[in-house]
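Write out this protein's structure.
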Amino acid sequence: MEPTTHTHPGTEKITAGSHSTLWIDSVEPLAFSKPEGDMETDVVIVGGGLAGITIAYCLSRSGKKVIVVEDGFVGSGETGRTTAHLVTALDDRYYELERMFGEEKTRLIAESHKTAIDFIEDVVKSNHIRCHFERTDGYLFLHSSDDIESLDKEYVAAKTAGLDVEQLLSVPGIKNYNGPGLRFANQAKFHPLRYLKALCELIQNNGGIIYTNTHAKNIDHTGIVTDSGLKISAKHVVVATNTPVNNKVVMHLKQYAYRTYVIGAKIKKDSVPHSLWWDTGDFDVNENIPPYHYVRTQKLDDTHDLLIVGGEDHPTGLADIEKIPEEDRYQLLENWAREHFDIEDVQYKWSGQVMEPMDGLAYIGKNPFDKNNVYIVTGDSGNGMTHATIAGLLIDDLIHERENKFKDLYHPSRLMLSAAGSFLKEFIGGFANYFKTKEKDSHPNELNTLKQNEGKTLDLKGKKYGVYCDENDQLHFVGAECTHMKCAVKWNNDEKSWDCPCHGSRFSYEGKVLNGPANEDLPYHNEMKPDSITIKNK
């Protein structure tokens, strides 16, 4: 059965993807007004996802005047497209973190994520937020391409890091898996947009201001200038845009963008534990960063829960390397889910973007090679909900010049040489694949043969254009070079977007920026599809 289509008026402002999500469908759009004049504040925060809003909440409750600027709606970026696992059982194995950071710092890593979960729980309870927050167990089990030794090593390293972890001979809730696993206690899950909505109310109660549908066109140490030319001056500037749009080069050499896919399928109520599950990843696909499956339950109605299953990751813009188009990844997820759970109809499908840092930890703190009052948050590494919360606590302390034990751990200027080998293989391999596919993407003038809902990069009168033909035979032309660093964008037929394989920028078929680091739209125009057409250069 085809998934239900979920749409809203102006969906492009509510979510950065072509598919809606459970979270977006179950909350009214978190929209606020636009600024009407120049302003001054203590802190301006660019980005209205969980990181930006948590930072604003922490600063506003400690007395700072804050303004948040979001170019869509609050939560319209990756926060609205997460699966909202709150975990100390991280995407990156603890035995790898211990190898890179040593035992003492690895204990700090585990403590930071535990602190983040505890903080969310405390905010939820003290403010009576109804966001389905629930403590639960999480289970790590072997992918068929992995060796049992990895579970043994992870148990020892996680235990050394201070986590409550237990070895199991079998994993509850999963069928057709008879192997061992690890149980991580005191994990959690929640409804991210319900939580965001409550934080927004608390920020406003503390005197903070939130603006939506407002693009920060220029950002520097003095503040920002919006797309309408208004200046918001600030003593401190925080860029929390998933990947920093104010840092042209440095940070984008230390992290790499991946697309990840999600389905939500009905499952009989209480038929499986209300838990979290993760396999150890497919080493046959990528031995450096093996794509893994991640699963959780969510309350749906009186008779059913929703099983939310994610995975089938690939480097952004490079799905073709595995010869599996983006739109086919959902079926692979469904096949895997049916093998391991008794799911019914698939209700949702969506994709999101993950920034994988060199050493598995987010970059939170002062922007490298910038003034001391400019801060960034990036590198979610698949644990965006806890990294975003760590950012709220850490940047609050940095701005108030208070000590924070996690400051050096997450500093954006760090360079972990012990992590460089695997990362460079992945990074250089990605660029090799980009150049391998670059010429194949370019086609001669095929405007007349372009099918409805199809996009291609075409050579037209000596120039390359990205061209998409919609269901009404309207042709949408964009410049084929990313506005970040001029890499050639590639068509994503699932999201109907133009994606940059170099650093993860994404644009709608009308050229609007969906993901940074690009902060400027692609040149765009549209024309009806005739027998012959004159190309307008812009």
